[in-house]
Amino acid sequence: MIPSDLFDLLLPKQQNFLLVTHKFPDHDAIGSLLSMAQMLKIQGHNVTCWVPDFDRREFGWMPGNELVTDHSILRIEPSASDFVGGNGTYNFVISLDASNFDRIPQNQQLVSLLKSVPLINIDHHMDNSHYGAYNYVVDLSSVGELLFQLFLSWGWEVDASVSTCLYAAICSDTGRFLFDNTTGSTLIAAGALINRGADRHLVSRKIYESKSQADFSILLLALKNLVVNESLRYGYSFLPFPNPDTKAKPIDFIRQCADIDIALIFQEVEENVVKISLRSKESFDVQSFSSQFGGGGHKKASGIILKGSLDDVIQRVIDALESSINSI
Ligand SMILES: [Mn+2]
C-alpha cells in the first residue's frame, strides 16, 4: 500500500487503536510504538499499547512511555480507562517492527480480537510475511525512519517528544549510524529530528551509557565463552540459563573482533529456549541463513529462537553455518 492509503485508514476521527510490537522489544520497537501512539492521540484517536514484556527500567525514560499501561493481559473489550469516548471496540490493530505474526506476543485475546479487527502491519524487514490486512513495508534503516517519512508526508507536526522517540529508534537500529543500513536519507532524517527537538544527549546516555554491573557481568561471560573459527571467519559465544537479566548486547562487542565476519550469541533465555543473535560484517546473508530455522531479520542482522538444550542448539546451528560457509 502507499502512504495515502494508510492515511485514509487513520482519517476518521475518534477511532480505537491497539498497538503491538515484537517480543524482546528494542528501541526501534518501542520508539516507533510510542511515537505512533502519541501521534494518533494528537489526531484525536484512542490508543492502547500492549507490550507484555515492557521493561520500564529500560524504556521508562522515553517520552510517552506512560501510554504502555501495566497490563500484562490484553482485554478484548477496551476499558473505559483506556478510552474516553471510544465506541467500545478496536477499529484497528497496528503492529510495528514485527516481520511475521509469530514475532508478536500472542495470547488468546489478541488472536480472537484479530478475527474481527483488521491488522495494519508497518515494518522495515524485507522478509516480512505481509500477515496484515494492510501491509506497509519499506526497506529503510528502522521503523523510526519509516514513520518519520510517513508523518511528514501526511503533514503531521512532529514535536520534540515524538522526535526523541523516532531518533532513539533510528539511532539504535543503525548502531549509532554505523551499520550498512545507514543511508544519506537516514542521516538527514536524524538531523531533522534533532532540529525538531530530539534529545540526542538523553538518547545516547540512556541507550549507551546506562549499563548496570549485571550488564558487564554478561559481557564478561560472553567474552570468556568466545569461540573463534579463524579459517571460516566466524565467532560465537553462549550464555547458559540462568544468566543475568540484562539488556546488554554482547554481540555488539564480539563483532568487533578482526578475525571474524560472522558473529553469533546463543542465549538460553529460559530452560531449553535459546535465543540466537546473528551479525554479518561482509556478504554472508544471515537473514536467509536464519530462515531455515524459522528466524529472520535483515541480511546483516538477524535472530532465531529455538527450543532444545543449549549444547544441541549450538551444534545444530554451527553445523549448518559451517556447511553454508563451505558451500559459498
Ligand atoms: Mn527495527
Spell out the key features of this protein:
single chain, 328 residues, alpha/beta, inorganic pyrophosphatase (n-terminal core), Diaminopimelate Epimerase, Chain A, domain 1, six-stranded mixed β-sheet, five-stranded parallel β-sheet, 12 helices, 38% helix, globular, binds manganese (II) ion
Q: What is bound: which ligands? A: manganese (II) ion
**How many independent structural domains?**
2
Which radius of gyration do the C-alpha atoms yield? 20 Å
Q: Can you say what the CATH homologous superfamily of the largest domain is?
A: inorganic pyrophosphatase (n-terminal core)
In the CATH classification, which architecture of the largest domain applies?
A: Alpha-Beta Complex
Short description:
The protein contains twelve helices and eleven strands. The chain is an alpha/beta fold. Strand 10 and strand 11 form a beta hairpin.
Structural summary, described in words:
There is one protein chain. This protein has 328 residues and is α/β, with parallel strands linked by helices. It folds into two domains: 3-208, Alpha-Beta Complex (inorganic pyrophosphatase (n-terminal core)); 214-327, Diaminopimelate Epimerase, Chain A, domain 1 (Roll), CATH 3.10.310.30. Helices cover 38% and strands 18% of the residues. It contains twelve helices and eleven strands. Strands 6-7-8-9-11-10 form a six-stranded mixed beta sheet, sandwiched between helices. Helix 10 links the parallel strand 7 and strand 8. Helix 2 (27-42) packs antiparallel against helix 6 (160-173) and helix 6 (160-173) packs across helix 8 (200-208). The two termini are 36 Å apart. The structure holds manganese (II) ion. Manganese (II) ion is lined by residues 28, 97, 124, 142-143, 173.
